[in-house]
Every structure is written in C-alpha cells, then in structure tokens.
C-alpha cells in the first residue's frame, strides 16, 4: 500500500504474534458484521482503525503479522492537549491485538466442546474455523450497533465511514484515502449533531446515535460504560436498554462484543428462525418479544454453555458466507439485501 507524502504516516516495521488459523481467521472475523472499520486493502491484508491507530494485518501460516501507521501532524485540541496518541512500543501493540482478538481464549477446545454437544455446529465448524468474538471499545460498539437496525453490512460500513469522516479526528492518509478515528462522545453531542447525521443519511437512527452519545456523556460517561464489564450480564443489559435506540438485540451485541458477556446471545428474526427450524425449539410464541429473546438465549446457553454467544457467532458467520455465495451466483442478484443483513438489528 502506498502512502501519501507524509513521513509521519509511514508504517513501522512489521511484527508478528503466534496465531494459527484454527485460532483466528481474519477474513471471517473482520467481515462478518462484528465490526465495520476494517477493509481488505490488498489480497489477504486487512486495514482498519483500532485504539485510535491505523493497522494493517495479514496472516502467514501460524503467525499474525501487523504494522501500525504513524499519525500525521495535527493541530492541538481546543483544550491545548496534543491531538496525537502517544507512541507505543512493540509489547504494547502486541497486547492491544491480543486483547482485541481475545487470544487468551483457546478456540479449538471450544469448537470441540460445542461440536460434541451439537451435531449442527459440528457439521458447520470444519468449514469455518477461527471465528472468534472481538473485544471492542464499548462506546464505538454501542453507537455502531445502533446503526444496524433494519440495515445490511455494506450499508452500515459506509454509514460508519461517513460518521468517522465527519466527526472523528483524522489519523493519516493511506494512498489518497483519509482515515479517521471513531468520534468522541463530545463530538456527537453538539446541538446540530442530529441534523448533521440526518444529512449523512442516518435517517431515524440519527436521533438515537446523538441521543445515546448525550445520555452516556451526561450519565455513566465512557468510563462508566467500560465498567459494565465487571457487572453481571443481566445488569449490563438492563443499563444499556435505558439508552435511546437500544433494545434487547443491540444490548446483547454490545454485551457480547464489548462487555465480556460471552453468554449473551443476540437474537433477531434470523436467529429465532434457526432455533425453530433447525433445532426444533418451540420458543417465544408468534412474535419476537423480550420474553422470546430470553427463552431463545436460554435455549442456546443450555446447548452451548457459558460461551454461547461465541458459538452463535460461528453459525451466523457460516450462514452469512453461504448466503453471500448464493447471492453472487445469481446473475444480477443483490446480495446486500439478503444474507448480508442485520435485519431488525445486529447479528
């Protein structure tokens, strides 16, 4: 990847971590609707923003290789503090990736456990190894998943890109592409934030994004949202559901992907249909009520155990890929409107 003429944006040396494909498949994890800030910048290479830094990742045999790009010189923030993040050493960047991909969790052992309990999972698992749940920043995860309601992955990704370009701090240029950090809460709480979001194509979601940003800023604060990692799952979900635009589905996604609640199983109409058609589970009545969410989540927790949300992420990824392949095989089919969909919320 070529960089614009800015020495401060040149990548550092490449580093690597031991990480076999059975533990992580970048192509599956970064494109399956958990996060919307990574793109395949060249075959097998994924570039994105993590921790207010721009990274490129690639895999080679049993190692995960990465490089981190330096930031451009920026003007100081309004309060006089430097805009640039402090430079990290290799051990710190290793730890960021280790934490983000939760590499302390031994995935093959979990696959074996889930497969032993569930023949359907066992059938899927061989074709979809290395699907693991990311540990994301809670603020970014929450505001991103508010955008997923009645939406599909490619459109959500474009919306988040516009959000970051309009409200986030510019980090660097890659080729001619400017890359921005995810916006701060303060950037999204201005009087005209909702109107700006509507102009960016967020529709009714604009009110919820700006409203939740304001509610967090005036209430828990970003630190309080992070501290939900240490409270029980039910309590974290209850607090999240008090925020504008956050229902059970979005709350479960944030619990699973940002707040360390591995037992959280996000349920939408797609997951509900899987439970009924593939597992023969008679759950939730005729509509997807809060009671149905709870019953379906309990069913899968009973089947898969304490990391049920991780197992569901594997099945969701498999269904998504198969749907995309089916759509691409149809001449002129619009795959984005099919399996590349978050339906009534995120996966």
In brief, what are we looking at here?
The protein is of the alpha+beta class and 347 residues long. The chain has 14 helices and seven strands.
Q: Which descriptors apply to this entry?
A:
single chain, 347 residues, alpha+beta, globular
The structure class reads alpha+beta
**CATH C-level category of one domain:** Mainly Alpha
CATH H-level homologous superfamily name of one domain:
Helix-hairpin-Helix base-excision DNA repair enzymes (C-terminal)
Identify the strand order in the major beta sheet.
1-5-4-3-2
Q: What is the share of helical residues? A: 40-55%
Give an overview of the whole structure.
A hairpin with a 2-residue loop joins strand 2 and strand 3 (45-50). Residues 1-9, 75-82 and 333-339 have low confidence and may be disordered. The chain has a domain at 262-325: Endonuclease Iii, domain 2, CATH 1.10.1670.10. It has a five-stranded antiparallel sheet with strand order 1-5-4-3-2, covered by helices on one side. The protein has a two-stranded antiparallel sheet with strand order 6-7. 39% of the residues are buried. The protein has 14 helices and seven strands. The chain starts with 14 loop residues before the first strand and ends in a 19-residue tail after the last helix. The radius of gyration is 20 Å and the shape is globular. With 347 residues, it is α+β, with helices and mostly antiparallel strands. Helix 3 packs across helix 4 (119-125), helix 5 (138-146) packs antiparallel against helix 11 (248-258) and helix 7 packs antiparallel against helix 8 (205-218).
């Amino acid at each position: 990847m070529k960089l614009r003429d800015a020495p401060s944006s040149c990548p550092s040396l490449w580093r690597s971590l031991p990480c076999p494909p059975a533990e992580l498949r970048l192509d599956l994890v970064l494109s399956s609707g958990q996060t919307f800030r990574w793109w395949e910048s060249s075959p097998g290479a994924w570039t994105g923003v993590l921790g207010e830094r721009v990274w490129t990742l690639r895999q080679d045999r049993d190692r995960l290789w990465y490089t981190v790009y330096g930031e451009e010189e920026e003007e100081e923030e309004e309060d006089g503090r430097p805009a640039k993040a402090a430079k990290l050493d290799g051990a710190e960047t290793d730890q960021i990736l280790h934490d983000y991909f939760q590499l302390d969790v031994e995935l093959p052992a979990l696959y074996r456990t889930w497969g032993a309990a569930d023949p359907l999972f066992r059938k899927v698992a061989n074709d979809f190894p290395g699907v693991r749940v990311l540990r994301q920043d809670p603020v970014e995860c929450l505001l991103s998943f508010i955008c997923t309601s009645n939406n599909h992955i490619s459109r959500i990704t474009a919306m988040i890109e516009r959000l970051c370009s309009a409200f986030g701090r510019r980090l660097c240029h890659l080729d001619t592409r400017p890359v921005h950090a995810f916006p701060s809460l303060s950037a999204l709480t201005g009087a005209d934030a909702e109107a700006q979001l509507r102009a960016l194509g967020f529709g009714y979601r604009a009110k919820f994004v700006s409203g939740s940003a304001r509610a967090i800023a005036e209430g828990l604060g970003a630190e309080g949202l992070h501290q939900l990692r240490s409270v029980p799952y039910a309590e974290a979900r209850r607090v999240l559901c008090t925020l504008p635009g956050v229902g059970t589905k979005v709350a479960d996604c944030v619990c699973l992907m940002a707040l360390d609640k591995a037992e959280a199983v996000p349920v939408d109409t797609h997951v509900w249909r899987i439970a009924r058609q593939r597992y023969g589970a008679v759950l939730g009545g005729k509509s997807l009520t809060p009671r149905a969410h709870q019953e379906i989540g309990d069913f899968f927790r009973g089947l898969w155990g304490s990391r049920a949300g991780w197992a569901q992420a594997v099945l969701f990824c498999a269904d998504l890929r198969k749907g995309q392949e089916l759509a691409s095989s149809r001449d002129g089919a619009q795959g984005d409107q099919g399996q590349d969909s978050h339906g009534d919320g995120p996966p």
